[in-house]
Amino acid sequence: MARLARGARVETIRLEIPRGATRKIVADVILAADDPRAFARGSRFMDAMDASCNTMPFPRDECIGSDLNALGPHTISLGTTTSTIDLRAGPNIMAPIEHAAVQIEAIRKEIAKLQRANDTSDAGAARLTKRRRQAQVTMLHKRLARLRVDAERRVLMVYLYAVHRTGAVHTSWDSVEVTTRGTRGILANAITWMPKRRDLMAEFEAWAFDLVDSGKIERFEGVIPVSPCTGNVCDDCFACTGEMRRTRKTGIPYHAFECTACGRQGDRHQVSARAAALLLQRAMQSGTGR
Ligand SMILES: [Zn+2]
Fold first, then answer.
1. Rounded CA gap, 134 and 144, in Å?
2. What percent of the chain has pLDDT over 70?
3. Ion ligand 1 nearby residues (CB, 5 A)
4. Rounded mean pLDDT of 47-72?
5. Residue 246 C-alpha to ligand 1 middle, in angstroms?
6. Residue 14: beta bridge partners?
7. Domain assignments of the chain as residue spans, ordered by start
8. Which residues fall within 8 angstroms of residue 19, CB to CB, at 6 or more apart?
9. CA–CA separation, 94 vs 78, rounded Å?
10. In 3D, which of 128, 138, 87, 98 has the Cα closest to residue 267?
11. How far is the centre of ligand 1, averaged over its atoms, from the C-alpha of 264 (Å)?
12. How far is 278 from 65, CA to CA, in rounded Å?
């Protein structure tokens, strides 16, 4: 409907014959538009976030850095060159992402259970039971995919909102590629999906430019992939000395940070995001960025 309001028109409507117990009629609507802006990504979320998060403090800065992690409470951390950003300082804007993570985990377990049941049932097991389980697995995979797409959009929204509030012109994208290839079954379940894919970076950039067009972001010049070599680097020391030294204390909890050189303590991912912002700033100053 929102797209129709922006000038898209209905090209075709296809109705599916009612099937199943619910007798639901499914309508596929194909939209078309001469002006591609009819399909522009939405900007209304920005107003909603402004209304609920206006008391959250955000430093003003030209550069913002990011650290992306497994889906859950640490999915996205952000920092500018001058400070880390606590995304939990106001209403928990990560809540929808955390909720999706819990749902995804539950579905993955359910899929594993069904697959195990099919793998271990003997040849004599009813073919119908097996096929029913397989159909259920297919349906669960579809739900999983939808949840991921939604969670990814929300990660982008949090980042875009921070770009809006910090006034950042340059943004970094944590560019590590993660693969779960070669892992199977229960082990694969333990490895959680991470939103680091390159096409997501492109989506982020395109959306940011859309928001500049609609006046929700002041100035934005692009996103630059930054290698995630920052997990063990102290942001305070990096800002002071200009050197990236791995001074994170060993043996402390995974998400914690403590610097063996200056004693700085904090959240590891926020520290990492600020280090990325500092790296980005140096890249822009030395002209190696775009
Ligand atoms: Zn330090």
1. 15
2. 75
3. 234, 236-237, 259, 261-262, 264
4. 92
5. 9
6. 28
7. 1-39, 40-286
8. none
9. 12
10. 87
11. 5
12. 8
Q: Which two tokens stand for residue 270?
A: 């926020």
Distance 26 CA to ligand 1 centre (A): 59
CA distance 4 to 1: 5
66 CA → ligand 1 middle, Å = 19
Residue 245 CA, ligand 1 centroid: distance in Å: 9
Segment (H or E) for 233 = none
Interatomic CA distance for residues 156 and 208, integer angstroms: 9
- Tokens representing 34 are 């001469």
- Per-residue HEC secondary structure of 133-188 comes to HHHHHHHHHHHHHHHHHHHHHHHHHHHHHHHHHHCCCEEEEECCCCCCCCCCHHHH
Strands in 222-226's sheet, in edge-to-edge order, are 84-85, 76-80, 63-68, 170-174, 222-226
Instruction: Tell me the per-residue pLDDT of 7-18, one tens digit each, with 9 for 90 and over.
Output: 566 666 666 566
Contact 156, 196 (CB under 8 A): no
Query: Which pLDDT band, with edges at 50, 70 and 90, does 288 fall under?
Result: low
Helix spans in 83-126 (H): 95-120
At residue 120 the predicted structure's pLDDT band, cuts being 50, 70 and 90, is: confident
pLDDT tens-place string over residues 193-239: 566 677 889 999 999 999 999 999 989 999 998 876 668 999 999 99
Residue 132 CA, ligand 1 centroid: distance in Å: 57
Pick the closest to residue 80 from 143, 149, 6, 168 (CA basis): 168
